[in-house]
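Record type: monomer structure entry
Structure origin: computed from sequence
Chain ID: A
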Amino acid sequence: MAFNHLVPMLEVEDMDETISFYEDILDFKCMDREGNQWAIMHKDDISIMFSERFFKEKHPNTVMTGSLYINTDNVDVIWQILKDKVRVCYPIENFEYGMREFSIFDCNGYRIQFGQELKIN
């Protein structure tokens, strides 16, 4: 039994705004969409699905206690492209666990981290 890949599905308030953010800011492409009920976005080897809110009465705000972590081959270039276009959670820095990374919030308040392994000589 194999797990093939993971595609997160996040609930959103505004599908149009979400698709625009991921296309215009993060350079994803919307590959499929069913109105405001569902959409799937792709960039390189990354896929994210979005859905309408299912339990809005019980959970009035979108929430995720974790983050989406995207490994990249040039985190500094991505930082330069994004830092003035998005709400930054924390700026780019090197961490003692061997990663150079930064974090932003998307238009729904979900946290996205971008990281690159540090080359230690």
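Annotation 1: The two ends are 39 Å apart (CA to CA).
Annotation 2: The chain has a mean pLDDT of 94.
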